[in-house]
Amino acid sequence: MQANVTPNTEIQHIIFAGWRCQYGARKSGLPTQVQAQVVAGLAAGLTQKEIARLRGVSPASVRTVVEALYFNLHAYRATAAVAEAMRRGWIAPLLLALMISSISPDTPAQRHRQPSRTRTPYSASRLIASQRGSEGV
Q1: What is the mean pLDDT of each run of 10 residues along the chain (137 residues)?
Q2: Rama region for 79: left / alpha / beta (φ>0; ψ in -120 to 50; rest)
Q3: Fewer CB within 10 Å: N-end or C-end of the chain?
C-alpha cells in the first residue's frame, strides 16, 4: 500500500503531536524526520509557529519544510497535505488516544453547556412601576 518506497529502506517511527509518523532516509519515498514532525503538527491542527516552538526551531524553518511538503505531496493547503500523507501511510492518529477519548466517563461533562444568566432580566414596565412606587413616598 505504500507508494514509492524503495526496498531495503529502514522505516523508523516517531510520535509527535499525538500522531504516529514513519520516516526514512532522503530519496526513499518517505518523509525525513523533520518533515514527518511538521506534517504531524499540521494534522494536529497546530500553527507553524506552534510547531516551531515544539521543535525548538524558527518559524521560518518550519515554513520552508511546509513548502517542501506541499511540493512533494502535490498539495496547495495543509488539509490536502495531511490527507495525502495519511493516504501514503506517513502519519496515523494514535488509536489509543482515540479509544480512550471515546470511552471516557467524563464525556457528558465535556459537552458544551449553555451559559447561565448572571444578571436578573428587568422589563421596562417593571422598572416604571418601581419608580412610581418610590415617588409616592
Answers
A1: 55 87 89 94 93 94 96 94 93 68 56 64 68 65
A2: alpha
A3: C
Q: How far is 85 from 97, CA to CA, in rounded Å?
A: 20
**Pairing verdict, β 12-16 and 19-23:** antiparallel
Eight-state DSSP code of residue 117:
P
- In contact, 61 and 69? CB cutoff 8 Å: no
User: 73, 35 in Cβ contact below 8 A?
Assistant: no
d(CA 36, CA 54): 14
Model confidence over 4-22: pLDDT tens digits? 555 556 889 888 888 899 9
